[in-house]
Structures are given as structure tokens and as C-alpha cells.
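Anyone opening a protein record will find just a pair of labelled lines. With that in mind, the following record should read easily:
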Amino acid sequence: MKKTLVSLFIAGVLVLALNQPAEAAGKRDSGSAVLTVGATPVPHAELLNLVKPDLAAQGIELKVVEFTDYVTPNTALIAGDLDANYFQHIPYLESNAEWTAALSSAFGVHVEPLGLFSSTLKNAADLPAGATIAIPNDPTNEGRALLLLQSKGLITLDANAGLEGTPLNITGNPKNFKFRELEAAQLPRSLGDVDAAIINGNYALEAGLNPVRDSLLLEGADSPYVNIVVVKRGNENDPRIQALSKALRSQKVKDHIQQTWDGSVVAIF
């Protein structure tokens, strides 16, 4: 009987000892977390990469997946390939019923003022009669571009056009401007083919254009088009997302935005 008890005790000790590495590994796994965020390169991915060490210090591995278009990041988020994305503003998110139903804004970070650029002109007043202006072709940014021109008195829009106006909503066009609707990413490359183009801030930056210095017209810093981090509905309070919010809305990021882009990107916190 004694031998049996001793054998059982030794066996129990061995089982316990053998299980300790597995339990320790499990704690390591549960103590670390991966957060996968889709983003366009500038400034979104750059800012995410800036805060990677801050999240790592909290046990969160931030993986940044770069996209060069405005559709795939939302599709990938809905499909579960991403935990969040960072590239868009609320009017763009709300332009698609499927996105609105499945996704939600977690928090805002910055605004990228939209600007009018030209490779040949120095002032908006120099736009000739019949000039061709390239504008984004996605619903909200197209309306936003036209609103910029209207705010400077260059065109007039139908009062009911709202944020989703198109050239069809133009009721006043004294200089008879013509509009070329292009995918946002193509706009910088169009400058050699048009008189001017209205370009999103991130694509202007990628093309080596400084919206503050190089634009003929620029949105004010009070623009409602704040760029947001988006998640699946219900995940807004995920601890990883809350940690990302704290990191992206820190003084470190605010200073980096000011020092790097000098007004071309404006922090809203």
C-alpha cells in the first residue's frame, strides 16, 4: 500500500512538472495580443508604425497592412482579415450601406485638408475659361471637392446637393470649367493632363506635394472630414482598440504630425 501511495505521489509530481511549461506557454500566449490594422501609407501607416513600440510595451503586437485604394480596407475588415482600419472619414464610411451596417468609428485622429493643385498655375484666379479640373470620383470626396470650389466662389451648387454633389449639381459655372472624375489615387498623376486637380491630402503627400505650400486652394483646419479608426460594430471597446486610441492620440503623435507635415495634416485631439 505504501509503495502504491509513493508511486501515485511521484506520478502526480511528474505530471505537474510536465504541465508547467505548457501552462507557462499558455500565459505567454494569453499575455500577448495581435492587432492587425489596414491603412493607406501616408500618413496613416506611418503614424501606426510610430506607435508600435508603445503598444508592444503593453503586450500588443501591432501589424500594419498597407492598402493603396479606398475600398479594399473596408472589405477586408468586414471579412475579418483586419481588426481595424485607418484611412477614411465618416462621410465616406456612411456612403455605403453595407459598410454602415457592419462597421463603426472607434475614434478620430486627424484631418487631411483637401487641396487644389496645378503643375502650371500659381493661383486659383489664373484658372482659364474652360479649364479642366480633375476631382475624386468616390461619392463623398467628389462632393467635398466641389464644395471647396464653391467655398471660394468658383462654382455654385444646387442647395440640395449636400455632401454627395456631382458635376450634375452645378448650377453656376462662370468660367465653364470641365471636370474629369478619377480614382483618388490617380489624381497626382493627372496633373500633366489637366489644368488643375483636387487631391486628397494623403495622396498629395505621397506624390511629394505639400498641401500648405503647393496648393492653390486648401480646406480649413476645421474641416468635418476627420480621419477615423474603424472597427466592426461592437468592437469599439476592445482593449486593444482602446490602447491604440491612447497611443494614436498622444502628445508624441501630435508633435510628430506637426513637425513632419507642418499643417498638411492636422491633429484633432
User: Anything to note?
Assistant: The chain has eleven helices and 13 strands. The CA atoms of residues 98 and 117 lie 33 Å apart. Confidence is low (pLDDT under 50) at residues 1-31.
